Amino acid sequence: MSGYFDGVPHITYEGPDSENPFAFRHYDPDRVVHGKTLREHLRFAVAYWHSLAWPGGDPFGGQTFERPWFGDSMAHAKAKADAAFDLFTRLDVPFFCFHDADVRPEGDSFAETRRNLEEIVDYLGQKMERTGIGLLWGTANLFSHRRFMAGAATNPDPDVFAWSAATVKSCIDATHRLSGQNYVLWGGREGYETLLNTDLGREAEQAGRFLSMVVEYKHQIGFEGALLIEPKPQEPTKHQYDYDVATVYGFLKRFGLENEVKLNIEQGHAILAGHSFEHELALAASLGLLGSIDMNRNDYQSGWDTDQFPNSVPEVALAYYEILRAGGFTTGGTNFDAKLRRQSLDPEDLVLAHSGAMDVCARGLIAAEEMLEDGGLEAARAERYAGWDTPEAQAMLQSDLASIANRVEAEGLNPDPRSGRQERLENYVNRFI
User: Residue 173 catalytic?
Assistant: First the structure.
């Protein structure tokens, strides 16, 4: 182990009355709700990038964190892995996630970079076998390096497209070797700053072909995990092509990939798109695209993606309600794509940020399960649409405008509006949280 977290205890469940800050109050991993344990429902994962690789900068200031594994050598990469698995085991999480750039140093050539990734994948594999911790998903960083400043798959330079394709291949290979349950394609800089230098049609065709190649390669190597796209509306490009769930669904339909790719949905990105998290989850579920989630929150006084750890049980409960309604996760899970505040410098801060967020998620899921079991929301929903269950209403959907108009006049229809009862339902939800 790394020694970095020495003195920080392992987090265990002590119950809601515990005053121990290093204990779970709500996350009892063995508690059974809705037919599965909380561990099986929530499928927690730690994000390698924010927790182990992020230096603590923001748009107005540089590094605030000093980690002994920060550096560009393979020795640093292995020290980071040692610290990572020390963190994972103290939290008793079942999974982690990573970008290639999080776990290996950049080489002087693509071949050297690939070899670095392969070496560290071997090292990670040994740790996974020893601890039983799995890989929820892997992905490629196609946005940080200056070569990606105009995108990866959508780049006007075909050499950058080629580099990006080779990088994704190496990352899918790594994910496959580590038995990852998903592979995520994060849009990064797939978008544009100005139409003055952008060919929208060409870039869309490039992105569609790139994703088709990824699907083809998945089947070629026998990767059984899910392919996921992560919608994001802004940051860093002004107009992102993967703006939200609806936009990505239109893209997938355009290229015939809607049965091959699902979505990894992030709370912070949903807010930036002008939606709620539960809206994006419900829409994805209705389209058959719900795959996995990145759990975080934004600062509602800031206009960017602040990636804070979740701390609102009501928000989380409504999100897990939609996930449970959809049948729960299969290959997906709850990845904490969240980072410490720049002033949270101590090793214990990183542990407590995750353990507190795990408690919030557990409390939210328990509330969601209680609401689902009670059935009040579903009963209200069924009552609201009950008129559509009649034979006459169903027949109308198979009719035509002229016939419907004739019926309206013949029957003298003059419908009165009915209350949506929003406040009553909000009061109902508050009973559980």
Answer: no
